[in-house]
Amino acid sequence: MLTHVLAAATLASGLFLGALTSAGPAWAHAARIAGDPADNAELAQSPPRVSATFNEEMQPEFAAMTVVGPDGGQWGQGTPTVDGAVISVGVRGGAPSGTYTVNYRATSADGHVVTGSWSYRVTTAATGTAAPVPSPGAAPEPPAAPSSSSGGLPAWPFAVAAVAVVAAGAVWAVRRRS
């Protein structure tokens, strides 16, 4: 009997140590590797288009990109386009000088949502400055915090599953004794 217990303990510890030492690298999520214009760039005039380049291809479905001007208005024009690893959107003409924030949200090839933002500055207002397109809602939303990924899977489904397994085990143990 003791030999069976020792054999089982040895096998379990061997499997545990093997799992720890042979674990491969974690799968990395897509990350923005460049922006056009670059982060914190100073431009004499507004660019006709802004783009974000990622380290892997992005899915064209559900891609979103906005350009929020110094006045809080939406200066992006048209629907964002996805070309491989690049997401871009046009910028309306007549933009005032100031800091612009580009916000993006897209899905990488592996299905993970990637969000983030970066800013650039326009030093000269366009002649005949146009009025911005108001952002949806009564007040403009503050720009999203810079981030390169969503952080992976949420933890709450695993916690719910663990509670369900423990509860099912407790019910089974109580019924077995009866």
TrEMBL record:
InterPro entries: CopC/D, CopC_dom, Cu-Rt/internalin_Ig-like, Ig_E-set. The keyword Transmembrane helix applies. Keywords: Copper, Membrane, Metal-binding, Signal, Transmembrane, Transmembrane helix. It comes from the Bacteria. Residues 133-145 have a biased composition (Pro residues). Residues 129-151 are annotated as: Disordered. This is Copper transport protein YcnJ.
